[in-house]
Design a protein that fits this description.
eight-stranded mixed sheet; globular; Rossmann fold; 2 domains; 31% helix; binds iron/sulfur cluster; binds magnesium ion; single chain; alpha/beta; binds adenosine-5'-triphosphate; four-stranded antiparallel sheet
Length: 338
């Protein structure tokens, strides 16, 4: 079951997902027993240090995990009640770019360099409707205007390399919006490659579009400043496990998991340095996923670690409505350490 308790069925409901990679060094358990839900119209931020399984989770939702070496060993991913893991590749292709869209850190890898952006966006309209070329191109220009690209009719004639990074990201967002009913947008580090001012503009744009189009957003980010400004709810991952899940204000005010609290200790202290701090200020580093057994994976870095933590991963606990965490010695019980 999902960890929050919305009155409405969630748009996306991931249940007990396990994603492994069979590598020459051994089995990498990239995502373990993950339960994650996103409600209609909600922005869920997925946060955690590099290598903790955020992108693999996004790739599992869109069925883009390379198999082999990847393997979705168990679990289900319900989207409006249908298990995406049961769909054929063809059905999944239709869903990607229609009800589920994706934007990534570097849009150059997703845009086709040999077509103008107007043509590429128009192509999305033409795939999902019987619109003619001219009408689809006009609709593409309207979308470029919607995502606040200046002189959109002229820009529609540009090739991706002729645009700045921020413009390309806007073009990607426009492309995602060209789908008939964008239900879920997955944004994997969408602003990391951009400078701070442009980052803020893109995040503002995503928030506006969420209201306007009524879509849900899965926002993957390293940046707690971005989380504070953009998300409704936050799921914190560590070494393939979800360790805390809470509404954004609740997590910032009352983190329970020592790792989540550590991340918040790294949050920017002033609007001027927003986005400048990353998660590196927690001592130590993420353990090699190959060497993690059933213990709490944070136990080699955690000030609260006990033998109990090294013996087994904790069960779910609740700190309040929709606030779940997985820790034997949470902050509220322990003060700093127990
Ligand atoms: N194709 C692959 N083959 C083997 N291991 C992989 C593959 N893709 C991902 N992994 C492993 O899965 C784990 C999770 O990776 P993932 O890309 O999801 O991390 P992430 O949280 O998105 O990190 P980042 O913040 O750096 O993007 C990592 O240990 C990574 O090495
Ligand atoms: S207190 Fe134990 S269970 Fe909680 S994060 Fe630390 S090591 Fe893990
Ligand atoms: Mg990633």
């Amino acid at each position: 079951m999902s960890d929050n308790n919305p009155t409405q069925a969630p748009l996306l409901d991931i249940q007990d997902l396990q994603v492994n990679f069979h590598t020459r060094r051994g089995l990498v358990r990239a995502v373990r027993n993950l339960n994650l839900s996103i409600n209609e119209g909600e922005t869920l931020a997925l946060v955690g240090e590099s290598g903790c399984g955020k992108s693999v989770t996004a790739h599992a939702i869109t069925r883009l995990v390379p198999m082999p070496p990847g393997d979705i060993a168990s679990g289900s991913i319900l989207f409006r009640g249908d298990n995406l893991l049961d769909l054929s590749e063809r059905e999944m292709r239709t869903l990607r770019g229609s009800k589920i869209s994706m934007i990534f850190q570097e849009p150059m890898t997703s845009l086709n360099p040999v077509f103008t952006i107007g043509t590429q966006i128009a192509e999305v309209f033409r795939t999902h409707t019987n619109m003619g070329k001219k009408e689809a191109f006009e609709k593409a220009v309207e979308l470029l205007d919607l995502v606040k690209i200046p002189a959109p009719a002229k820009r529609a004639q540009s090739y991706p390399h002729q645009l700045s990074g921020g413009m390309r990201q806007r073009a990607m967002i426009a492309m995602a919006l060209a789908s008939p009913e964008p239900g879920l947008m997955i944004a994997d580090e969408p602003t990391t490659a951009l400078d701070v001012t442009i980052q803020a503009q893109i995040l503002q744009l995503l928030s506006e579009l969420k209201e306007r189009v009524g879509m849900s957003i899965l926002l993957i980010t390293h940046d707690m400043g971005v989380v504070a400004e953009t998300a409704d709810r936050v799921a914190v991952m560590y070494a393939g496990r979800k360790v805390e899940d809470a509404p954004v204000e609740e997590l910032f005010a009352n983190p329970q998991h020592p790792y989540a609290a550590g991340l918040l200790g790294c949050q920017p202290s002033s609007p001027q340095n927003k986005g400048a701090h990353r998660l590196e200020s927690i001592d130590g580093s993420v353990p090699d996923l190959l060497s993690i057994g059933e213990e709490c994976p944070f136990s080699n870095r955690c000030p609260n670690a006990s033998d109990r933590c090294r013996a087994g991963f904790p069960e779910k606990s609740e700190a309040g409505p929709n606030h779940a965490y997985w820790c034997h010695h949470p902050i509220s019980n322990s003060g700093v350490a127990s």
